Amino acid sequence: MKSLLFSRFFILLPWVLIVIIMIDVDPRRPASLLGRQPHFSPYAAGRWGAAPRGNAQRSPLLPRDGSPDGGPQRGAEQPRNRSQPPPAPPTTPLPTIYAITPTYSRPAQKAELTRLANTFRQVAQLHWILVEDAAGRSELVSRFLASAGLPSTHLHVPTPRRYKRPGLPRATEQRNAGLAWLRQTHQHEPQRSQPGVLFFADDDNTYSLELFQEMRTTRKVSVWPVGLVGGRRYERPLVENGRVVGWYTGWRAGRTFAIDMAGFAVSLQVILSNPKAVFKRHGSQPGMQESDFLKQITTIEELEPKANNCTKVLVWHTRTEKVNLANEPKYHLDTVKIEV
């Protein structure tokens, strides 16, 4: 009898133990209590918390002072007289170069304007004032400026017929129109609010990019040599001890300012401070307009020599060869109309 009971007991015992274990396991209990505790590595002290004080090992990823950026820890003593870096000086705006270019209708007009625009595109902070010798803006120049990709102003003023005779100064009205636009545009601005430099850039000249770097620092009136002008390889101001003392020229050396139109630049503030300074028609002889204009705004002692004390030629009075159209038909014969 006892053997029968023991045999049944040993048969049921494993099943009772399995039931007890299953009852003891609560599926709603958090999984973290059944698993291992997280390992707090000293390399993860900044994420999981500080390492135990008894742990002498220090993270090699941190500086010796324990701060992530190498600075002092919170609560550590700060240096009292910590020098601050000096504030950055205010940036000076780059002076704008205003290039006044008279132009007139002719077969090579677009070609010369294209060459000039290719130069101007490489000059920072330049505003092109293009003045046509015409009663209105031409479609050719308007389309050209629209596609040139340059800050520009398109003006027009016709030259009176009586001033178109050979031997008389040219482009007088156009240069004066550019001066009038500058004064009208900047008349309400405070003094020296916008630094700028004025330059008369004829469309038949060739300009080095270095020239624009030189003229941008003009304080009042700056001067430099001009190549292929006056019947000579070049003309230039004569400089001694950094000051202009005379002129190397082949034509009318007695002029007060024996200089070509491409040989000087004027500060915008000088133009605004002398509102009556213009190119004169009456009383100005041919070839004297540059000198007559400069006499209204400066003296020879105030001139600022550029281009290595006026020993480098950075602009050339090249002029385009007269176009030969001897075989051009009188009437348009092509099936398409092409702008040249």
TrEMBL record:
What protein family does this chain belong to?
Belongs to the glycosyltransferase 43 family.
Q: Where are stretches of biased composition, namely Pro residues?
A: 84-93
Please name the Pfam families in this protein's record. Answer: Glyco_transf_43 (PF03360)
Q: Which residues bind UDP-alpha-D-glucuronate?
A: 102-104, 133, 170, 175, 202-204, 317-319
Reactions catalysed: 3-O-(beta-D-galactosyl-(1->3)-beta-D-galactosyl-(1->4)-beta-D-xylosyl)-L-seryl-[protein] + UDP-alpha-D-glucuronate = 3-O-(beta-D-GlcA-(1->3)-beta-D-Gal-(1->3)-beta-D-Gal-(1->4)-beta-D-Xyl)-L-seryl-[protein] + UDP + H(+)
Q: Name one GO molecular function term.
A: galactosylgalactosylxylosylprotein 3-beta-glucuronosyltransferase activity
Q: Where is the signal peptide?
A: none
**Protein name per the record:** Galactosylgalactosylxylosylprotein 3-beta-glucuronosyltransferase
Q: Spell out the subcellular localization from the entry.
A: Endomembrane system; Golgi apparatus membrane
- What membrane topology is annotated for this entry? Single-pass type II membrane protein
Region feature Disordered, mapped onto this chain = 45-98
Provide the glycosylation site positions: 309
Q: Which domain of life is it from?
A: Eukaryota
Q: Which gene encodes it?
A: B3GAT2
The UniProt keywords, alphabetically, are: Glycoprotein, Golgi apparatus, Manganese, Membrane, Metal-binding, Signal-anchor, Transferase, Transmembrane, Transmembrane helix
